[in-house]
Design goal:
Chain lengths: 115, 114
């Protein structure tokens, strides 16, 4: 099975712009979670989508949003970019249908640099 | 709320020596514990996980970890490291209430020296 794929791998934007990142989960996985990784704050949970609905949300401002399509692919959008949004954005997928904990499988990430 | 503490931010060790990376967690409910590894410019790869059952968990690349409920620890060990083990290691926790939301520690950079 192919792993989790993320596009683009690298991105440079300027302050005030908006950006959209894409994630394709492992085939058959219906849950997609997003994480932000920065040197200062480490790895932080952004949100999780399942069946096109946001099921769980971390503590990030409303500038961070996402969506999921019927084929389980997910996009994450950040509006009005700030310098502090520079980070590695990681996407993880899991089956999503289990009642308990599921192992998450991570993609290679999108590295965003905001100038 | 749950939290994870990785006690060492950097661990240098010579090749073929044993290593232990320490992880402590806090949670008011039953937890599930994970170790992930991140190589430079890559995403996270699952090393091993503890969900239930035996407290000694074996993972990939010769790593193992022991879940100790009384000490709320989940330390990662390898009896003999290789240069290729140089990477950052993250301990993570989740619970049944937030099954797909991982809380990560701050990471431990393992550097294996020749």
């Amino acid at each position: 099975k192919a792993g989790v794929t993320q596009t683009p791998r690298y991105l440079i934007k300027t302050r005030g712009q908006q950006v959209t990142l894409s994630c394709s989960p492992i085939s058959g996985h219906r849950s997609v979670s997003w994480y932000q990784q920065t040197p200062g704050q480490g790895l932080q949970f952004l949100f999780e989508y399942f069946s096109e609905t946001q099921r769980n949300k971390g503590n990030f401002p409303g500038r961070f949003s996402g969506r999921q399509f019927s084929n389980s692919r997910s996009e994450m959008n950040v509006s009005t970019l700030e310098l502090g949004d520079s980070a590695l954005y990681l996407c993880a997928s899991s089956p999503g249908t289990g009642g308990g904990v599921e192992t998450q499988y991570f993609g290679p990430g999108t590295r965003l640099l905001v100038l | 709320a749950q939290s994870v503490t990785q006690l060492d931010s950097q661990v240098p060790v010579f090749e073929e020596a044993p290593v232990e990376l320490r992880c402590n967690y806090s949670s008011s409910v039953s937890v599930y514990l994970f170790w992930y590894v991140q190589y430079p410019n890559q995403g996270l790869q699952l090393l091993l996980k503890y969900l239930s059952g035996s407290t000694l968990v074996k993972g990939i690349n010769g790593f193992e970890a022991e879940f100790n409920k009384s000490q709320t620890s989940f330390h990662l060990r390898k009896p003999s490291v290789h240069i290729s083990d140089t990477a950052e290691y993250f301990c993570a926790v989740s619970d049944s209430g937030s099954a797909r939301q991982l809380t990560f520690g701050s990471g431990t950079q393992l550097t294996v020296l020749p």
